[in-house]
Amino acid sequence: MTANQFSRRTFLGGTAAGAGLLLGGSTLITACSGSTEPPPAAPLTPVNFHLSWFDSVQFGGSYLADANGHYAAQGLDVTLVPGGPGVSPDTSVIAGQSIMGISAANFAGQAKADGAPIKIVGVAMQRNPFVIASLTSNPINEPRDLEGRRLGMAFNNQLDLELLSSLNGVDVNAIEVIQADYDPAPLVNGEVDSLLCWLVDLPVAMTVAGIDNTTMLFADFGYAVHSQTYIVTEDTLANRRDDVLALLRGEILGWQDHKADPDTSAQVTVDRFPDAGMDLETETVKAHEFVKLMFSDVTDASGFLWWTDQSVADNIRVLKALGVNVTEDFWDRSLLEEIYAGGPVL
Q1: Structural domain contains residue 8
Q2: Could you tell me if 258 and 331 lie in one domain?
Q3: What CATH number should be reported for the domain holding residue 252?
Q4: pLDDT under 50 in the chain at which residues?
Q5: How many domains does one find in the chain?
Q6: Looking at the structure, do residues 256 and 319 belong to the same domain, yes or no?
Q7: What is the model's pLDDT at position 32?
Q8: How far apart are CA 263 and CA 240, in angstroms?
Q9: pLDDT score of 39
Q10: Which has the closest alpha carbon to 130: 55, 192, 60, 215?
Q11: How many other CB atoms are found less than 10 A from the CB of residue 307?
């Protein structure tokens, strides 16, 4: 699930790999002069699309794009390659193993700053999913509430905490940081007062378990880092632009389906990976939470995956504070402008 994801990539687990769905066939046409068989349909173009995390409803729109035939209708046979700890979509895309991948502005931005010829061509999450989770009986409602309290998190997220504190005039040294596993147990058991995590992970687990919790979204307090970004190489844009356009169109149609019916998206996800140990109730709650993250007034007006110039300026500023230096040309909106020439819904 693709914000600075170091702790999440370290402590969550999962199984199963995605695969493309090949749809095709021929029809026998009978005429008065006899029967003729039309020429076979053009073969689908095989492409790899590298996801950023293990199989889950985080990619529900992609699974629907496959199951509902949107990729095939665009002429593609798409293999959805799962990510996970130590698996880098950025590296897969740069090496030409995948035509497109899902990353985040900080990870892909660092690769770009290091010389990788990559571009962001879509932004799925309109709001960064990092949150501070707390129990509703002892809530953290704003960054200043962290002072004097115990925060459980992975040490990898220290820069994110320092940036959030700096953006909001919080004394980071007044926060008692306790290294904790990526699990709600330390919070539920009273070992910490809050947890740094993703909105769609630990808070959902607590909600499903009947534990009242409160979340404070980093994005509401100045932390602007594009997450679940779609990346391609400059060479792919130049030489396989039609394939990228087709893949983006399939994705958009799949995510439009997800938005219209998150419950079905969750069911398709669980059914697709029967050995992954997914819980339908949990995936359904997550599916609805992802709608809140991935759709906004911006996408309503301009289409799924869109971003604004202001959000780019905010990202450049925040990424610089995280030690990642990129410029406006890291983002390329030309494909989305072509796709949405007729309006924000396909």
Answers
A1: no
A2: yes
A3: 3.40.190.10
A4: 1-7, 9-35
A5: 2
A6: yes
A7: 37
A8: 35
A9: 64
A10: 215
A11: 22
**Shared-domain flag, residues 330 and 230:** yes
User: Are residues 237 and 321 located together in one domain of the fold?
Assistant: yes
Q: Which two tokens mark 151? A: 């925060």
**What are the structure tokens assigned to 146, written together?**
């962290």
Rounded CA separation 150/180 (Å) = 11
Residue type, 116: A
CB 31 within 8 A of CB 37: no
pTM: 0.86
Structure tokens, 225: 């880092």
* Environment class of 247 (CB within 10 Å of its CB; exposed 0-12, middle 13-18, buried 19+): buried
Q: Could you write out the DSSP letters of every residue in 42-62? A: PPPEEEEEE-SSSSSGGGHHH
> 14 is written with which tokens?
């999962």
- In a domain? residue 4: no
Q: Are residue 211 and residue 287 in the same domain, yes or no?
A: no
Q: Does residue 323 belong to any structural domain of this protein?
A: yes
**What's the pLDDT score for residue 22?**
27
Domain around 165 = 130-221
Distance CA(243)–CA(337), nearest Å, equals 16
pLDDT of residue 36: 59
Residue 153 is predicted with a pLDDT of: 96
Is there a domain that residue 283 lies in?
A: yes
Q: Which long-range contacts (CB under 8 A, 24 or more apart) does 260-266 make?
A: 262/60, 262/287, 262/288, 262/290, 262/291, 263/287, 264/64, 265/57, 265/60, 265/61, 265/63, 265/64, 266/57, 266/60
pLDDT at 155: 85
DSSP 147-215: TTSEEEE-GGGHHHHHHHHHHTT--GGGSEEEE--SSSHHHHTTS-SEEEEETTSHHHHHHHTT--EEE
Rg, Å, the chain Cα set: 21
